């Protein structure tokens, strides 16, 4: 037996229950004479943080019954559970067995009406599915996403999404001599996107596999909504080239492939502490952006008029990593409004005639309008779901014209060796993540809660 979803990470962290295993050999025994063939069987629990720490031999039968007779009862202690039972508390490895819990609250009698709330007392895998892929967001970022409690976990009512080094899991030679195989084979570990070679990559000296392991959670199977108000209280990560995002995508692509069916970016930021545009505008962890993406479904991204529905804000003092802030969206049939700590930052209200196609000046392009004969708010008139992720680097978001201090950006967007150049500069960027302080959580995005209200019947 295996879990439907891997609540505690990859095998064997999310355990395996072997009810019966046997061998068909009629005359098969150990050197000591113990029968090991078809006249014998085993029942086992597999558990532990990794293959090397699988403590199956401590639970080689666990309260299984053979012809109604109990063969073994494995009862872990109430304090420490299976982590203690398997002596894993003596390994120094992080304990993955913490748990999670979204809250859906239906039946509205008055408005605004709270229809969803997650305070992250637990990590609810019925609501949040982990994406498992190296494709990232299509920007050739340097992370791959996995379901692992080193990268996504809850503690004291806060969700942490923390990037770590791939070599922490696979060893120092894995990036240039190993393979990253994410195809999987069970419901909890199957690759979720093969785009951009997302399910398998082979490492070489010039093209290493993704050097960062991180997490991306989506609510597409657990919660989606159309129109309402969403509020997320979160603290952004700090560290060079870290790219946190909380955003929304359509549950179904009613108007075609991206960006035709829309994207709502509630908040995107950069972890760099000293990062500026040529005119001195701050672009790092003291600033963030909120954006709508829409337009014709073509490969040329220049026809995504996101600049017409985009706002950036910079704090007057401190950074977004110092304290929790509230990021919000008010979404109606008439407009989409972005909020920061309760204050409006941008309202996008497309015209009644022409809607977003007119708002983005797309009526002058000659392309066919996918939003014709629909509402003025199209493509944002469909159900959307939530996404939370922490990416690292990639092409486009950390523009080559921006300046970082004290060390410059180590790769160029038009290079064929972006991942290699980023990796070779590890001694510059990794110390800015403060990996040896506070459990490396300066580099983590922390989410305190998510709330969604329905605003009208």
Automatic annotation (TrEMBL):
Residue ranges of domain GH16 in the record: 88-457
A GO molecular-function annotation: hydrolase activity, hydrolyzing O-glycosyl compounds
One GO term (biological process): carbohydrate metabolic process
Alphabetical list of InterPro entries matching this protein: Beta-glucanase-like, ConA-like_dom_sf, Glycosyl_Hydrlase_16
Any single Pfam family the record assigns to this protein: Glyco_hydro_16
Domain of life, source organism: Eukaryota
Family matches, as PANTHER family: GLYCOSIDE HYDROLASE FAMILY 16 PROTEIN, GLYCOSYL HYDROLASE-RELATED
Family: Belongs to the glycosyl hydrolase 16 family.
Name of the protein this chain belongs to: Beta-1,3-glucan-binding protein
